[in-house]
Specification:
By secondary structure, the chain is an alpha/beta fold. It has 2 domains: 3-184, 3-Layer(aba) Sandwich (Rossmann fold), CATH 3.40.50; 191-362, Glycogen Phosphorylase B (Rossmann fold, 3-Layer(aba) Sandwich), CATH 3.40.50. It has 15 helices and 13 strands. It has helices at 16-26, 65-76, 80-96, 111-119, 147-155, 165-174, 191-200, 223-235, 251-260, 277-282, 297-304, 315-324, 334-346, 348-362, 367-378; strands at 3-9, 33-41, 55-60, 103-106, 126-130, 159-162, 182-184, 210-214, 241-245, 267-271, 285-288, 309-312, 327-330. Helix 8 crosses helix 13 (334-346) and helix 11 (297-304) crosses helix 14. The two termini are 14 Å apart.
Length: 379
């Protein structure tokens, strides 16, 4: 008899956690599992990528501007928790009413966990994923009254899956009493598929030395730092393109800022690209300027393509670059990021060494092993 699994996510924009979920679902063994997915909004660039084997339930249709404004107002007046309890609890409860699952999985912190807390009693086993260093950026508290309420939700979980050792360490510092429930499972990375798609996917003509960035255009990714680095490089005589692959709520603001800084011709916003690997492979450096990261899926993808990296020393990149030698780590300040990017630009030998080490490290990525660990956690 097949085991029944329910995954919970808010919606499926072009972020790393969302892409990881799609990769997990694509590699699931549907001969052994019946899989359902609850979405708050049936929206996002990855909605069309949900495998047909998955039964999808949603509370709303597309995420409209009116929803964003409503939620912003509710948070402003500290009414979001009440709204969630009155309306959102009812929505997910109607999906699971009369059903029992072998496992329910909130595949993200924050809202997904909040929904999960309402229906944990409908599962034999409850599992929640943590994708980010919550000690450094505790963004998930926006969905809870306080840390105590979030802790109560995590106490309902049988296992808490962290995507890197640093993410687990940060989580255990916040909630030490839950340490024995934590496990680390690295995101499944299909190296062969990434390389194959890089050879056949959408390409972009390279004009000059190029720095590539991939990720949602939101506050966490700190693209403002990259803009400042680009300005300083131009001022110091470097003729370089920046390719930014992604979309998000800060797109208009960042585009305007690039124009104000007179770098709009070289700091290029290319939008969301579902298969960005051919573009990434054409670049010379991969750059991450984030405030916080977990495993950093895009950094691993850059490694698979042999692209050397410069990244702020957030949780996942610290672990990945530290283990591989595939790049340079920088501090949070623009000055240090600029120094490390410039060092990578100036030193061709360094770039080649980092590229070789990144490629070698990526050969250890194993989808089958990651899926085996996931099945073990689900029970």
């Amino acid at each position: 008899m097949k085991k029944s699994i329910l995954f919970i996510m808010p919606y499926l924009p072009g972020g790393g956690a969302e892409k990881v979920l799609i990769d997990v679902l694509r590699n699931f063994d549907y001969s052994r599992y019946d899989v359902s997915l609850f979405l708050e909004f049936r929206d996002g660039v990855y909605v069309d990528s949900i495998p047909e084997n998955v039964s999808v339930h949603s509370m709303w249709g597309r995420l409209a501007m009116r929803h964003e404004r409503l939620f912003r107002l509710l948070r402003m007046f500290r009414l979001y928790g009440l709204f969630h309890s009155l309306f959102c609890r009812r929505a997910i409860s109607s999906v699971v009413r009369g059903k029992s699952f072998d496992a329910i999985v909130s595949f993200m912190e924050g809202n997904a966990l909040k929904y999960h807390s309402y229906v944990a009693g409908n599962a034999k086993k409850n599992v929640s994923w943590v994708h980010i260093d919550l000690k450094k950026k505790h963004w998930s508290l926006d969905f809870f009254k306080d840390a105590e309420e979030e802790k109560k939700a995590y106490h309902l979980m049988n296992r808490i899956v962290c995507v890197s050792e640093d993410v687990r360490s940060a989580f255990e510092d916040l909630y030490p009493e839950l340490a024995d429930r934590c496990a680390v499972i690295y995101n499944p990375i299909d190296r062969e598929k990434i390389v194959r798609l890089s050879e056949s996917g959408q390409k972009r003509e390279k004009r000059k030395f190029t720095v590539c960035m991939v990720g949602r255009l939101n506050a966490q990714k700190r693209y403002d730092r990259a803009l400042e680095v680009a300005v300083r490089l131009k001022r110091d005589g470097y003729d370089i393109d920046f390719w930014v692959l992604g979309e998000g709520e800060l797109q208009t603001e960042l585009t305007r800022k690039a124009k104000e800084l007179h770098i709009e011709d070289s700091f290029l916003f290319l939008g969301f690209v579902k298969s960005p690997y051919a573009i990434m492979r054409s670049s010379d450096i991969y750059l991450s300027t984030s405030d916080a990261e977990g495993f950093s899926l895009t950094l691993c993808e850059a490694f698979c393509l042999g692209v050397p990296a410069v990244s702020t020393a957030t949780a996942g990149p610290t672990e990945l670059i530290g283990q591989s030698g595939g790049g340079l780590l920088a501090g949070d300040d623009v000055e240090d990021i600029y120094r490390k990017v410039r060092q990578m630009i100036d030193d061709e030998t360094l770039r080649k060494r980092c590229s070789e080490r990144a490629l070698e490290y990526s050969r250890g990525f194993d989808v089958a092993n990651a899926m085996s660990q996931i099945y073990e956690v689900l029970g």
